[in-house]
């Protein structure tokens, strides 16, 4: 009984940290911007929090979504949504992360939305990641990295990854069917080796025919916000020329 209570308390604490990070950032979003809405459970807290502030303060904020799920949530709340193809840039995007290292490089794609997330992130002038205390790590070594591949010829990519020691595994749904992303592609999860050169790994994966995108987000996050009773904020250090 005590062990079950401990697990429940831990889950409640994690959810509280997610909400704390989301509310911290939502309170600091400026008016009159185009705002990118991330995907996942932590981002969902942010969508609700920024919606409440828009309504309460009558803010002039238009939004773009990084997944079908986020789009549906925002539309249900009555938020002003834009088609990403009709704009040139996003002012700020707020999203979660699966893992983030001490350099603010991270992995995304646990929720299978990495392609749309990266497209919006690359359009954004500023990217803020909101996470709970489990997500920061010293490095990304041994972490699971999703690789999005087209269904046609996906096994060819799988064999390449297997033969090069990345321990690939297709991602499946709970019902046993292979999981399809919002774009209709498949995900292969691999393991990042210890000591891997992350920029080289990212470039090599993109070179493989059939790979659409991968979940390495390098030099993307400008500010990391970790939820807690005392929210922790880390900003990317940019060296001057």
Summarize the structure.
With 241 residues, the protein is an alpha/beta fold.
Largest sheet: 6 strands, mixed
CATH architecture of the largest domain: 3-Layer(aba) Sandwich
Question: How much of the residues is beta strand, in percent?
Answer: 15-25%
The chain-level mean pLDDT equals 95
CATH topology (level 3) name of the largest domain: Rossmann fold
* Tally of contiguous helical segments: 6
Shape: globular
Relative helix content: 25-40%
Cα radius of gyration in angstroms:
18 Å
SSE order, as H and E?
Answer: HEHEHEEEHEEHEEHEEEE
Number of strands: 13
Uncertain residue ranges: 1-7
Protein name: Ribose 5-phosphate isomerase A
Organism: Fructilactobacillus myrtifloralis
Keywords: Isomerase
GO molecular function: ribose-5-phosphate isomerase activity
Task: Note down, in words, how this protein is organized.
With 241 residues, this protein is α/β, with parallel strands linked by helices. The chain folds into two domains: 2-134 and 219-228, 3-Layer(aba) Sandwich (Rossmann fold); 144-214, Alpha-Beta Plaits (2-Layer Sandwich). The protein is 34% helix and 23% strand. It has six helices and 13 strands. It has helices spanning 2-26, 41-57, 68-76, 114-123, 154-163, 198-207; strands spanning 33-37, 61-65, 90-95, 99-100, 106-107, 124-131, 144-149, 169-170, 186-191, 211-214, 216-217, 223-226, 232-235. The strands form three sheets. Strands 2-1-3-6-12-13 form a six-stranded mixed sheet, with helices on both faces. A hairpin with a 5-residue loop joins strand 12 and strand 13 (232-235). Helix 1 (2-26) crosses helix 2 (41-57). The longest helix is centred in the N-terminal third of the chain and has 25 residues, at 2-26. The termini are far apart. The model is unreliable at 1-7 (pLDDT under 50). Keywords: Isomerase. It is an enzyme of class 5 (isomerase). This is Ribose 5-phosphate isomerase A.
């Amino acid at each position: 009984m005590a062990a079950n209570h401990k697990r429940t308390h831990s889950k409640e604490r994690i959810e509280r940290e997610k909400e704390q990070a989301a509310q911290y950032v939502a309170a600091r979003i400026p008016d009159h911007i185009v705002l990118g809405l991330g995907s996942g459970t932590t981002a969902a807290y942010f969508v609700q929090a920024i919606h409440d502030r828009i309504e309460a303060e009558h803010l002039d904020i238009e939004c773009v979504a990084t997944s079908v799920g986020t789009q549906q949530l925002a539309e249900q709340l009555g938020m002003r949504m834009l088609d990403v193809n009709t704009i040139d840039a996003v002012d700020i995007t707020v999203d979660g992360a699966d893992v983030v290292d001490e350099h603010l490089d991270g992995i995304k794609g646990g929720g299978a939305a990495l392609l749309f997330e990266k497209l919006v992130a690359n359009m954004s002038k500023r990217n803020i990641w909101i996470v709970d205390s489990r997500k920061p790590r010293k490095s990304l070594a041994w972490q699971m990295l999703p690789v999005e591949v087209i269904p046609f010829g996906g096994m060819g990519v799988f064999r390449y990854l297997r033969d090069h020691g990345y321990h690939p595994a297709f991602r499946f749904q709970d019902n046993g069917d292979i999981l399809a992303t919002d774009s209709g592609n498949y995900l292969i999860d691999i393991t990042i080796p210890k000591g891997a050169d992350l920029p080289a790994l990212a470039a090599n994966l993109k070179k493989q025919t059939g790979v659409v995108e991968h979940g390495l987000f390098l030099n993307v996050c400008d500010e990391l916000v970790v939820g807690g009773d005392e929210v922790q904020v880390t900003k990317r250090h940019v060296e001057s020329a």
